[in-house]
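Team,

Forwarding the record for the chain on the shared tracking sheet. I've put the sequence and predicted structure together so nobody has to dig through attachments.
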Amino acid sequence: MATTNSSATNPPKPRLLSPNKKVWVLLVVCMLVACLLYYVMYIADEALLNTLKWTNFATATVNVDPQPNVTSSRSFQASNISESYENRIASIYVNSTYAVAPTRSFIRDQDHVLKSTPPATNVTNGKVGVKLSTFEDVEYFGQGEARFHKDEVVPNIAHFIWFSNHSFEFYHLLSILSVHKIMKADKILFHTDFEPSGPHWEETKQKVSNLEILHREPPITIFNQTLAPRYHQADIASIEILMEMGGVYFDPDIFVVQPLDYLRHYDCVMGREIPGFIAKGIIFANKESKFLRLYYEGYRHYDAHCWNCNSLKYPNYLAKKYPDLIHVEETSLIYPPGNRWRMMFFGKFRWWVDNFTVHIWIRNFLRLQTGRNVVISPQTIKTMDSAFGEMCRFIYYDEPPPQT
């Protein structure tokens, strides 16, 4: 009697997925779950920030007085920028004392300045009453957009802060030099408790004739709370300096690549890095800015363990709450964003067209180069084929930007 082959009559069931395919499917599912969790955490964080009761604020009233009539006709002198800037500003203020500049696109001419602006709208004089007992119990009668004044209301003064003894590098020189050559600040004030040393610092003092060194001790406390990290001390000092003098504050890793006169027509200007965060690497402010006062008051709830809560998230909250007290540049001040910093050193972008200033993310780059002999100097920037190299040569050697 013949025997039958069971394997022939009952073949094994085919597998839907091979072991390799299962691994790939699992990886894709994990990535999707991680993205979903990140999104949920982001939404929850925003919701929490917008519902917090800021209950221990000092009671105060902030009044935005009606703009006085401007009787003197100012002739705009812009020797460092093209005449289109003068014509554009003048056209906004025909029969108007002040106006709100609407959202505009960055359309620039070959001289790299704003070429046109949509028609402005007149503003009705009014007041803003802000009751600072809580941020949820607010008397608010704002206009909805920041005022664009006829004259520059932010002084043409630049501020840098340098606390503690650490190395002053070539890229720090470039940051200050860009303010001197492109912003053309009347004064550049260097606030420090320990003056730097070394060849790059000596070259900075030699090349920047309007540099003034001011001794300033770093703040130790804020509203009876101890300031922990060094960068939180600089955050507080920058706000205090602007409330004392007004002007434009710069982190020493910011490059100026366009004239900044346009933005000095607002009482306060900051830039957005990514959604939910307004960066403080550069701040324009009149010393009477109401937004600065609110920003400073937020440190009554200082969190030493969260590096960005008070400095980045809180001004974003305020800008949503009081949009008429600050003008936010969405992409032109802090670019590229942190998740795209590699394009600065390993790619190229149109930095000379779409940006007023650029954040160079130098610490990220140097951290990536740990263990390698990477030197950024007047010699090495000559051969850097990247956006960073182009900007360095533009600032240091006056090399024109690419014409593409």
